[in-house]
Design a protein that fits this description.
Helix content: 25-40%
Number of helices: 5
Number of domains: 2
Shape: elongated
CATH architecture of the largest domain: Sandwich
CATH class of the largest domain: Mainly Beta
Order of helices and strands: HEHHEEEEEEEEEEHH
Number of strands: 11
Structural class: alpha/beta
CATH superfamily of the largest domain: Cupredoxins -  blue copper proteins
């Protein structure tokens, strides 16, 4: 049964939040060449650019698979055409009565096995890399709700000894002041902040129904299930703002559960984390100002 109620938000400012902060900090994402933008583009074909080593390996495996599947597809299509042309009733009125061919039977048994082995070896290696979590630098607990996400930095404590936690909700249309920096159906009020080149352990659960936390640029997709704690990880290699969405049908507003994850430098993250212990909104404002200042220095150095 799908619940239509929402647990009360732990932290959500009506007038502040990341949305207004990023809109006020002009050019921090668009004009700063050091910052990427991890989202799908109109008419895009293929996977999103990789921002983790795991996703680079997913790209490589997809390319490897493609160049095996294409020859097989062409070969089978060629056989079908040859059979239709050469062995139709008009061209071949007397059908062959051959019932066995030892060489052919060995070939069509051994070749598929070899192809599957060729798929299995890199596939198992990739699955191992995705599932085995290396020693982590930080832990992010993600809770799926109908229809928003809750985040908790279990290693980051407030002055009261509680973990820094907040909810991330899709940005209302009337609050989108900049359609470029606040993409429709992807922008949220509070973004997840993580440092670049840090191993982030992600623990996932849900409070109501099954959700799925998916971040295409990182090669991460893991279900969040009620009463169960799943784990995955990522290590972002480039700063930037990256987007994902819930990838499990979870009810009426399933399409309105975006994920916005901001990868920043270690210095920027440390400053944000220190400020977030006491005031989350002030931490986002400080982070926006730091990013803006760094972008201005980058533009000045490029002249």
């Amino acid at each position: 049964m799908i619940s239509t109620g929402k647990p009360p938000f732990r932290r959500r400012s009506a007038g502040a939040g990341v949305a207004a902060i990023l809109a006020a900090a002009g050019g921090i994402l668009v004009t700063a060449p050091a910052f990427a933008d991890g989202r799908a583009e109109p008419w895009q074909v293929g996977l999103q650019p990789a921002n983790t080593l795991v996703h680079e390996h997913i790209h490589a495996f997809a390319d490897f698979t493609f160049w095996i599947v294409i020859p097989i597809t062409l070969f089978v299509a060629g056989l079908l055409v040859a059979v239709m042309v050469k062995f139709n009733a008009k061209a071949h009125p007397v059908p062959s009565r051959t019932t066995h061919h030892t060489g052919l039977e060995i070939a069509w048994t051994v070749l598929p096995i070899l192809i599957l082995v060729a798929f299995a070896i890199p596939s198992f290696r990739l699955l191992y890399e995705e599932m085995v979590i290396p020693p982590s630098d930080m832990t992010l607990k993600v809770t799926g709700y109908q229809w928003y996400w809750g985040y908790e930095y279990t290693d980051l404590k407030t002055d009261k000894g509680k973990s820094v936690a907040f909810d991330s909700v899709i940005l209302d249309e009337n609050k989108r002041t900049d359609p470029v920096r606040q993409p429709r159906l992807l922008a949220v009020d509070n973004e997840v902040i993580v440092p670049v080149d840090a191993v982030v352990r992600v623990q996932l659960t849900a409070a109501d129904v099954i959700h799925s936390w998916a971040m295409p640029s990182f090669g991460v997709k893991m279900d969040a299930e009620p009463g169960r704690l799943n784990e995955t990880w990522f290590k972002a290699e480039k700063p930037g703002l990256y987007y994902g969405q819930c990838s499990e049908l979870c009810g009426r507003d399933h399409a309105f559960m975006p994920i916005a994850l901001h990868v920043v430098t270690r210095a920027q993250f440390d400053a944000w984390a220190q400020a977030a212990r006491t005031d989350l909104d002030a931490a986002y404002r400080q982070l926006a100002q730091m990013i803006d200042d760094d972008a201005a220095k980058t533009r000045l150095a490029a002249r």
